[in-house]
Amino acid sequence: MKISDNFIASNEGSFFLIAGPCVIESEEQVMETAHKLSKITDRHEIDLIFKSSFDKANRSSISSYRGPGMERGLEILQQVKDEYDLPVITDFHVPEQAARVAEVVDVLQVPAFLSRQTDMLTAAGKTGLPIHVKKGQFLSADGMDNVINKIESTGNEQIMLCERGEMFGYNNLVVDMRNLDIMKELDKPVVFDTTHSVQRPGARGDSSGGDRRFAPTLARAALSAGVAGIFAEVHPNPPSAKCDAATQLPLNEFESLVNQWKAIDETVKNGK
Question: 228 near 222, Cβ under 8 Å?
Fold first, then answer.
């Protein structure tokens, strides 16, 4: 699947990264993170799609920080594109936002909780952009065939599927690595979301918990299975993050992980 002239997303090709802060907290935070991520991925010759959200519409509490809103958020993402020549991705939350968001982003993301919503999927498809669909925590991997069919009903076949864990009782997720192979059989690039997969939704009552220690382990396992890309939320100072503080990866430690992940990816794919 073509992301740009020099960037093809494929389960067989070199892995790419979708990375950035969970939510836009400030222009400075986003630009600092984009700058450092672009340098890291340039050094390791890895394609990067920069990610951050203008709104987190599914926060646990009514009082939780959600983001700067769509218009200001899109302005900041446009700055990332202009300054660092990076493709950008963000999520949208109601069908009416799709066309406006598509004016800025290079890839449009459908959130996991909304991945069955027909109006969301068809609105995304109608933009003509590549679509990144987070598999719902409540969906089976083979059930993503219906998701694909809904988007493709618009004539848009540019679809990536993302594994981000399954609900395991209350407030916990587990990852069934078999899902990666099942979704690859649907003939779409598969991305593994390594930071949301270690989340514990709503575990802190008014916010989600989780344990970032296990995110690198799961990423290694997914790359060993041969995925197209890794999704990782990265923050300059995760404990201070306004969203997903327990699961975002520290920006200053990210390069060592990327170096390791690239080695695994090359070993697996060059050995085929």
Answer: no
